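Bit of a strange request maybe. I'm writing a small parser for structure token strings and I need a real example to test against, not something I typed by hand. Could someone generate the tokens for this chain?
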Amino acid sequence: MAQLPIVIKPAQSKKDIRRFAKFPRHIYNRASPWVPPLISEQLRFMDSERNPFFEHAEVKFFLAYVEKRIVGRIAAIVNDRHNEFHDEKTGFFGLFESIEEYDVARALFDAAYDFVRERGMERLRGPMNFSTNDNCGFLIRGYETPPAIMMPYNPSYYNEFAERYGMNKIKDLYAYAVTDEEIQADKYLKVAKAVIKRGGVTVRRIDLGDFEDEIDR
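Reply from user aminoacidic:
Good idea to test on real output. This should exercise your parser:
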């Protein structure tokens, strides 16, 4: 694989964007705990006319090819609002996926870095999909725990490739798991009931059929 030329092309057509969205299914097999997003949801997220993020940011999608086979993808991101708020010139990469071939990852990182540098950015940071309001970071530990909503899941070599490229970790993000057996539900229910009784609080289900009046109540 490494001896074959790697070609990076922007994903511009609707066909290319759909290929971009579907590519992760070639990375994760059926035995993987990775949960694929709905293609329709992913396409909506990537659509500049439907995602308000694009109102203050520029995003470019790239696909990596070896011959005619797609072997990786990446998004390059310039978030104007982030840079204005933090008074910095930082570009981001996200939606990164690659086969286990460092040369492919390097070519994708190069494409993202070149894109943000051409727009005056001084550094590349990621992964951000597309910002901290979305899922971000590489999973580096905890592969034995099934992924949850808004949590990243990726092969372990992704972080290795990023560090090999010269990236340095700037922050640890932690997630915590708890089981039903560990939650002392009875204890919290007693406290909740006492608070409701003492404060004259009433808890009931919302009537979605009368939503406007429910807001006014």
